[in-house]
Amino acid sequence: MPSAEISLTINTQETEEDILGPLQEELSACIQCGTCTASCRNAQLMDFTPRRLWRLVLMGQTEEVFHSKTFALCSACYYCTLRCPRGLPLTDAMNTLKQLGAKKNVAEYRPNARFYGSFLESVRRHGRINEMEFMRRYFILMKNPAIPIKFTPLGIRLLRKGKISIFPDKSKTERPLDQFFQRVEELERQQ
Length: 191
Ligand code: SF4
Ligand code: SF4
Fold this sequence. Notes:
Elements: H1 16-27, H2 35-39, H3 50-58, H4 62-67, H5 70-73, H6 79-83, H7 90-103, H8 110-126, H9 131-142, H10 146-160, H11 178-190
Helix pairs in contact: 1-7, 8-9
């Protein structure tokens, strides 16, 4: 497959082996038994099953791996990790793919990265999620007016039921988790 189709922001010094190499090492003991797929409640929504995704990782198929929706749909339930007969860290591997997808600005993963980023920024600012602020941030980052329009009926239903509020909770604006987030950012820079 031509490399021009790869939508990763790849450092020119970085080979595809550099990207998937550490994961390939972690998953090298996979025997393709399919227990991870059979254990995954989200597998029917995924384009590649977990078993197939690991096979693609081991074969170094970077483009297929990062064009896949599979890792974005992993809800980190850890069921596959608990059941893998080889004891492989499968949920961590899914998380690694999410991190790589965000770091390398993979086009398919961009909406997810913006969703997670907006969610975490709201938690950082308030110590908990502020739904209205979180969705506002996400909509602005997505720059697509069709998205808020699509969510409007749901927003109105949630407002009517008192599940969300238009006005921010003033008592939760002291950024109580700032130190914690800063420490995580420091650790990530050291990696
Ligand atoms: S359960 Fe473990 S060994 Fe079996 S296919 Fe999945 S990753 Fe491979
Ligand atoms: S951790 Fe992810 S891949 Fe594994 S079973 Fe749960 S949702 Fe599926």
